[in-house]
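Q: What does the predicted 3D structure of V-type proton ATPase subunit a look like?
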Amino acid sequence: MGSLFRSEDMCLAQLFLQSGSAYDCVSELGELGLVEFRDLNPSVSSFQRKFVSEIKRCEEMERILGFLLREIKKEDIPLPEEEVNPAAPLPKHVMVIMEQLQRLELELSEVTRNKEKLQKNLLELTEYTHMLHITRNFVHRSAEREPSQVQYEEFPFLEKEPMMDYTSMQRLGAKLGFISGLIQRVKIEAFERMLWRVCKGYTILNYSEVDGFLEDPDTGEPTRSVVFLISYWGDQIGQKVKKICDCYHCHLYPYPNSNEERKDVVEGLRTRIQDLHTVLHRTEDYLRQVLIKASESVYIWVIQVKKMKAIYHILNLCSFDVTNKCLIAEVWCPVNDLPALRRALEDASRKSGSTVPSFVNRIPSSDTPPTLIRTTKFTSGFQNIVDAYGVSSYREVNPAPYTIITFPFLFAVMFGDLGHGIIMALFALWMVLYENDRKLKKTRNEIWNIFFEGRYIILLMGIFSVYTGLIYNDCFSKSLNLFGSGWNVRAMYDHGVRSNSFLALDPNVTGVFNGPYPLGIDPIWNLASNRLTFLNSYKMKMSVIVGIIHMTFGVVLGVFNHLHFRRTFNLYLIFIPELLFLLCLFGYLVFMIIYKWLFFTVRDSQTAPSILIHFINMFLMQGDSSQPLYPGQSGFQVFLVLVAVLSVPVLLLGKPLYLYWQHKGRDRLGMYRGYQRVRRSSEEELSLMHAHDMEEGTSLDSHSSSSDSQSEEFDFADVFLHQSIHTIEYCLGCISNTASYLRLWALSLAHKTHRNQRSSLQPA
């Protein structure tokens, strides 16, 4: 549980992995999730590392698996729902999996290709059939052709054309031609205009829309199509018409010369379509059987390939010794997990059958370890909220445990409603009770995943909303009279209610206020005309008090960091100035609010001074312009402002000057420190120092080298710039954050006003 309040104590360890058991060792460590590997080959590119070929093989298998998953999803075949976590396959089994996947891909590709060809042929035959049925009504032949006389097809509508009629075509002796096909409906108008402009009226276009949708062979989406028949005369016009059809991606089909030929073609098309339907149905059944068989193992293969790729990626981070028989790796590991790390290496070496076991050595390091905070399913949501603003440094105090209380509570201050809180809590409780249901965990709905991952946050927000709803005495914008009102408005009836029909609660009227309500706000305030005035004052002051307490608590948490890292000078140069600045200004505001609550009764409410005016006059040094809250207020406020102003230069200059003095004083204290190091070299003290350093993950040499490096790398300008940014951010943050906490009051007011408007719109 200690790692919840502070990140885990980490150490740097060196792993010596035998070549024959390195794969199994990394696989075992990956299953446990104990360590974080460091890259020992930073200067080597990714394409020049030892296990590049293995990673490429894994990527090829990932590509094949992606193809399989797409085909399975396309056929709506469900994947197995049971939870599986297979181990990474052994290197000798990788080729077997690779061959299975390649054979399966080849088979599926061939079947899919045949299916697409069959579907394309079926679509063409279907379009051809539609074309023949629709164009039959376009042209009517006047008579059968005679062998000794040239006759032409008659078009009843040709005589209406101004450019060319049938008799003029006969005089020209032109040869008529026909082009028929299908085009998308959205293109038909542009197609018609292009024909007219290019062919100058030497074509006749007839078209009609196909009933129903036809599948687009390029996109696979259903589209509306139009059957057209173009009659033209002249070979040159025919060439132009064909080029225009190609530009508009028309599907052209041969046009029959006679009715008998049309009937024969239609009959042949009907037979071929029936045969294609039969073959296509059998192909789809076979494809589905192959995919169903593949779906039983594809999920296991995906996990195995991912693990195998991760193992080879980790092995690429390791370096080889001079004999190329041992891999050397450096890992960050929690100190408490070192025994588990040793056992994992021993088990992996034994499973691989290696004669030489792999082992681990703890090594000192001056590098800053990574931050590791262990979470549970309850705390992970709150930890993610904190990490969204920034991950804390190594061994710093983790604010996530305190966020478990503060985040739902601040939400409940804005969302205080008993009924809404119960609904939210029940919804979250349902998700918590069924959290192991795979259908809830593995859904592809991103919004639902956000709700499900934050189910414990929503549960606490609902519970806290129930509590604040009781305090506000608010349930679906209605008050609950559980204990009986402490107000008796009968005495107020003659003081104004009878005359103006409005109820304004005034406790100064004798016999009206009998005592406080036992829990929360009295329900009679929901009927009073001065309800908003009372609730606004109450919630605004409560928001300020809660916000300043929250900010003060955050400043106090910094004390534990200063003490843990043994930087006691930060207590005097950072913590105390920050606390004085916050409390002397905004802590005093809380003091005035509480003082006014305690020492001014309802009888003095009309003459009570304004806290806001006093707070403004505090900065303007105008203490005599208004009625004081207490004796000696003016001088005390001047003192607080001076303390707050003086704390700013201490916060700004204190730490940089102290570190500069400490850096310059090292040279004069060098001889004394040398004597001190010699004195510490006695056997007893040296053993104690070694034991302490082993706990901290450092050594005596590392202490001395790190201190020397710090003395050499000290930069006053850098430290001063960093402290300046921190000072400006803190001082402005205190002001802006205090005003920002007023959003608790504003959103609470907006929430209640919106609910009151909705309830007023409901029919009585």
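A (community wiki): The structure tokens above were generated from the sequence. Confidence is low (pLDDT under 50) at residues 140-173, 671-712, 759-764. Residues 259-317 form the longest helix (59 residues).
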